Amino acid sequence: MSKGCTFYFVRHGQTYFNLYRRMQGWSDTQLTPEGREDVRRSGRGLADVKFDAVYTSDLNRTIETGGIILEENHAAEKLQMQAMPEFREVFFGSYEGLDIDEVWESINEVMGFPTVAELWAGSSIPEQMDATKKADPYHHAEDFLEFWLRLEKGLLKLIKTHRDTGDNVLVVAHGNTIRYMLNGLIPELENPQPLLNASVSKVSYYDGRYHLKSYNQIEHFKDLEKD
């Protein structure tokens, strides 16, 4: 078996649009104080991992999250974060900033399920993304192919750089980006649950395949030790 490499995919901390339950996508709202603290707790739990490279999307919420994790990892002066637009969140077009529940009701008008809960249970991620583009009055929302082609470019860059190095690679991205990506890469990961803020999903890549080690983990969160 080759040395491969290991990816630590971390979702950014809670933002104000997360708190207000708004469609976020490419909208760039700031982390809440609670979001920053959860990122620190996540970073403390990763403090013993020696990262060899760090990537984020080019949106501020992932860049700030990555910086906090590196501070807790005592690697802020050793590693240079690389921002990559390929790892942005899904773009929701004219739905950006709108109430999440209202948007999904609009999407379900296209999909035709009795309830939104049945939509989530009875349709695939590609089907949901394609319906979002169709439901968007401007049709600017990304469908699955548009999203995947963008994401794949970023993944190929990472694999080209880190394959067979044994590197630990931190990738700070977004809830849907990570979830949809892993759903496409890991055959056994069917209908993955939405990711928690600051959670870690660990994936090893070797012999040309992705192997899931953990998904949506927050058990590593570590509070600041008190004197």
List keywords for this structure.
single chain; 227 residues; alpha/beta; Rossmann fold; 2 domains; six-stranded mixed beta sheet; Phosphoglycerate_Mutase; hydrolase; Histidine phosphatase family protein; His_PPase_superfam; His_Pase_superF_clade-1
Molecular structure report:
- It is a single chain.
- Helix content is 40%, strand content 15%.
- Strands 3-2-4-1-5-6 form a six-stranded mixed sheet.
- It contains eight helices and six strands, in the order E-H-H-E-H-E-H-H-H-H-E-H-E-E.
- It has two domains: 163 residues, Phosphoglycerate mutase-like (Rossmann fold, 3-Layer(aba) Sandwich); 47 residues, no CATH class.
- It starts with a strand and ends in a 10-residue tail after the last strand.
- It is α/β, with parallel strands linked by helices.
- Helix 3 links the parallel strand 2 and strand 3.
- The longest helix is centred in the C-terminal third of the chain and has 19 residues.
| Helix-and-strand structural type | alpha/beta
Under the CATH scheme, the architecture of the largest domain is 3-Layer(aba) Sandwich
CATH superfamily of the largest domain: Phosphoglycerate mutase-like
Point out poorly predicted stretches.
Answer: none
| Whole-number total of structural domains | 2
Terminal Cα separation, in Å? Answer: 46 Å
Question: What is the 3D shape?
Answer: globular
Question: Helix amount, in percent?
Answer: 40-55%
Protein name: Histidine phosphatase family protein
Organism: Carnobacterium antarcticum
Keywords: Hydrolase
